[in-house]
Amino acid sequence: MPVPQRMEFFIDLGRCIGCQACVQACTECDTHKGQSMIQLDYLDRANSTQTVPVICMHCDSPTCAEVCPADAIKKTEDGVVQTARKPRCIACNNCVLACPFGVPKMNTPMNLMMKCDMCYDRTSVGLKPMCASVCPSQALFFGTREEIERLRPRSKPVNRFQFGGQIITTKVKMLAPKDTPADAVDITAAMYQPTIGQNILEEMLLEI
């Protein structure tokens, strides 16, 4: 009997077309129906229409959970960092301030931190997250490593990021140019100023 292939989440920033399909689809996830847990950000709105989808990267050692004084944020055995648990969340905003990727958002009316949980009700049973199932440009891709290598032969998945002196490894992978160094990608504010017409992720990664 064949061994099932492992499904992974990949982000290809340069493919985002700003259509908002992922944002709308996210509201339909059963675990947070009506609330979108992802957003689109402009990289340099004054000079470019380039947008990027912002989803939880599901860190191996999630800073959001480490700074939570109420132990409200849990990570599943398969590495998915979940939204804060309502009975425990005290709406202190520690996680919002601590996340290096700027992902958690405080839902003030609910006094609850909410964020992307990779549509856990779907991915835990082998289905695609809602966002990846509707993305027309496949900027958000949920599949096997073999599939992404076949579809994007000029890219390679990266899941090590450096913020100052801190190295963060993540469950979600970003696609980088094939010749990107194997070390952690250095994320600095300067890298979020793209040149019009260039692939955004290539520019960020080739500056290191």
Features of this protein?
single chain; 208 residues; alpha/beta; Alpha-Beta Plaits; 2 domains; 5-stranded mixed beta sheet; two-stranded antiparallel ribbon; 7 helices; 18% helix; 22% strand; globular; disordered C terminus
Number of helical elements: 7
By CATH, the architecture of the largest domain is named 2-Layer Sandwich
Total beta-strand segments: 9
SSE class: alpha/beta
What's the overall geometry? Answer: globular
Order of helices and strands: EHEEHHEEHHEHEEEH
Nearest-integer average pLDDT: 84
Distance between the termini: 45 Å
CATH topology of the largest domain: Alpha-Beta Plaits
Described by strand count, sense and barrel closure, the largest sheet is:
5 strands, mixed
Strand order, sheet with most strands:
6-1-8-7-9
Query: What is the beta-strand fraction?
Result: 15-25%
Give the low-pLDDT segments: 189-208
- CATH class category name of the largest domain: Alpha Beta
The total tally of domains equals 2
Rg, Å, rounded: 17 Å
Portion in helices:
10-25%
Compact description:
With 208 residues, the protein is of the alpha/beta class.
How would you describe this structure to a colleague?
This protein has 7 helices and 9 strands. By secondary structure, the chain is of the alpha/beta class. It folds into 2 domains: 1-55 and 120-208, Alpha-Beta Plaits; 59-115, Alpha-Beta Plaits, CATH 3.30.70.20. The strands form 3 sheets. A 5-stranded mixed β-sheet has the order 6-1-8-7-9. The protein has a two-stranded antiparallel ribbon with strand order 2-3. Strands 4-5 form a two-stranded antiparallel sheet. The longest helix is centred in the last third of the chain and has 7 residues, at 145-151. 34% of the residues are buried.
